[in-house]
Write a structure and sequence with these properties.
about 325 residues, alpha/beta, 9-stranded mixed sheet, two-stranded antiparallel sheet, 12 helices, about 20% strand, binds alpha-D-ribofuranose, binds calcium ion
């Protein structure tokens, strides 16, 4: 990577989270990315833990320069539930990793997002920001409805959420969308209104970029502290938690999709969010029918948002990208 090549401006919205931490490591360390800010939302863990975990990962990467702001502590309407049964009591694997003593930036996350995006809008086209939500989309919905003019600073949104085929939070729904279905629906609607390009990195590809317990152990052995040591511990925690010999880097895959789009296979498809279903609330309904035909009999009509949906991924390629970045091998 030549130093003269233009870095891609990005902002992450996170509910750190073990795999959000994996994504933050990649975003903070890869030389082709310009991490402008990180915003936090309640999800995997309560907001206060999410903020602390996020600051801790950025400190570990030596990226105290990246502003972090706290956003919504709860969904717009849905009763909040967390995922500490997956991510540990502190939300980041209960690793006893040295915790950041820093405070987040003052003000709400959507104000930081607004300021970063309006600054990007005032600059040349290459300054436009790729926003990467890796959590319930409460902050994103609030931003786009409160400050729609900020959308001018966006290149596109690449979000981890939803699925064309499977669920995890329920049989039908993926956690980030299930946690705040209204926010996901508002985000899709606002993006259609505002002409914002969307890429959905959903569960259909989420589990494929995997790192083995042996690779994690080597990271810990060779890099007791620092980003690589933390990376190894995050993967090892998941392997131990689920009694598996490998673990997904999860949210980090969405950052890989920005860095290396050739590793992801997508289709442009209509997507809407189920808000009313008893057993299907929070499902992303990805319409894979052949719309070239005559669908006038469909009482629902086409969804307002037609977006790029990730349907297959080169998991080994993305896992290697993550490992090379966290070890500084790039
Ligand atoms: O369903 C997976 C998503 O939910 C990931 O973003 C994970 O961090 C949790 O937030
Ligand atoms: Ca997450």
């Amino acid at each position: 990577m030549t130093t003269t090549a233009r870095r891609t401006p990005i902002v992450l919205d996170v509910d750190t989270g073990v795999d959000d931490a994996c994504a933050l490591l990649l975003a903070a360390l890869h030389p082709a990315l310009d991490l402008k800010a990180v915003t936090c939302v309640g999800g995997n863990a309560p907001l206060v833990d999410v903020v602390r975990n996020t600051l801790t990962v950025l400190d570990t990467c030596g990226r105290e320069d990246v502003p972090v702001a706290a956003g919504a502590a709860r969904p717009l309407l849905e009763t909040p539930v967390d995922a500490r049964h997956v991510h540990g009591n502190d939300g980041m694997g209960d690793l006893d990793w040295p915790r950041s003593c820093r405070e987040p930036a003052p003000g709400h996350a959507i104000e930081l997002l607004r300021d970063v995006l309006l600054k990007a809008a005032a600059g040349p086209e290459e300054d436009r920001v790729t926003l990467i939500p890796l959590a319930p989309m409460t902050n994103i919905a609030l931003l786009l409805r409160t400050y729609p003019e900020a959308a001018r600073g966006l290149r596109r949104i690449v979000f981890m959420g939803g699925a064309a085929h499977v669920g995890n939070a329920t049989a039908s729904a993926e956690f980030n969308v299930f946690h705040d279905p209204e926010a996901a629906a508002i985000t899709l609607d606002a993006c259609a209104d505002l002409g914002i390009e969307l890429l959905m990195y959903g569960l259909d590809v989420f589990y494929d970029p995997r790192v083995s317990l042996a690779q994690a152990a080597a990271l810990v052995a060779e890099h007791d502290s620092g980003p690589a040591g933390l990376a190894g511990r995050l993967v090892a925690f998941q392997c131990e938690r689920f009694e598996t010999d490998s673990a997904t880097v999860g949210d980090a895959g969405a950052v890989c999709a920005v860095l290396d789009p050739e590793g992801l296979t997508t289709e442009r498809l209509p997507v809407r969010v189920e808000l009313a279903g008893t057993w299907s609330r929070g499902r992303t309904i990805v319409d894979r029918r052949d719309w070239a035909g005559n669908l006038v009999q469909d009482p629902h009509g086409q969804a307002p948002a037609t977006i790029d949906v990730g349907l297959a991924v080169d998991g080994e390629r993305y896992a290697r990208l993550w490992l090379d970045t966290v070890t500084g091998a790039l």
